[in-house]
Design brief:
Oligomer: single chain
Distance between the termini: 50 Å
Largest sheet: 9 strands, mixed
Mean pLDDT: 92
Radius of gyration: 21 Å
Shape: globular
Structural class: alpha/beta
Bound molecules: flavin-adenine dinucleotide
Low-confidence stretches: none
Number of helices: 7
Strand content: 15-25%
Amino acid sequence: MKGLKIAVLVKQVTDTRETVEATVGADGTIDRNALPAICNPDDLNALEQALRIKDRIDGSQVILISMGPQRAEEVLRDGIYRGADEGILLSDRRFAGADTMATSYALAMAAQKISPDLILAGRQSIDGDTAHVGPQTAQWLGWPQVTYAEQVTPCEDGRIEIRRISDDETEVVRTTLPAVVTVGGSGAAECRPCNVRRILDYKKQPVTVWTADDLGGDAARYGLGGSPTQVVKSRTIVAEHKDTEWVASDESALSEFVARLVESHIVE
Ligand code: FAD
């Protein structure tokens, strides 16, 4: 099989798993600046699948694409230290305010420019959490998409085989290329660590930055103007002490408690 050009979509997110008391304000809002910025965990699972294909098929190439402010360069560099060949940052004030549709449009336009055989994305981000961006990118490109993948393996016939999880079972599916696959979940292999030699070699190498002009496409589809999503209202949910109820651990108290939860439609 000839080498594959693989684009991996990586998003810089704040590590909300590190939320501790000191980072939560009195109103329950999280001080994002007090939290570390990391590569979205599922994206590292996607990168590992890309690197395994690169290890297996000579001539393969792994290109990272991220859309975000200049700081997002950090996740590209991190991915290069782990084994990716190149990083492209989509950064322009005209991308600001993008919802998932405008984000995926920009990512699809960037992908079109580099013509990959395969796009791997994380299943979902730990901040926005919509799981929209991978499938929407496929839709813009008109490519097949496979979601919830744990493992991606190239086949001799030029297709790829994907092990994916559904509700309570594992499926194995095959698709032709080009395609978009979203990766993540507990069954997906962890990404290899940064390589010391690569850190020394690539520390000073600049990453490529593309603006809306570099991408071309329909300028009206970028940023806030290309975002049909309207945030009508947002609300912080703070769990208060009154929401805690101690229930005795005997059979009848637990049955009564579950009956109340069912009655109030909290569980079915
Ligand atoms: P998911 O769909 O859950 O992510 C799935 C995968 O897609 C990721 O694992 C990753 O592989 C890929 N992916 C997602 N986002 C990116 C990215 N940016 N680059 C590369 N790969 C990616 N966010 C801002 O930062 N600034 C804003 O001004 C802003 N304005 C918004 C306005 C509106 C009306 C809305 C609804 C959202 C706004 N957002 C803004 C949030 C922004 O839309 C999301 O961060 C983004 O679209 C990704 O969605 P998600 O986090 O749900 O990703």
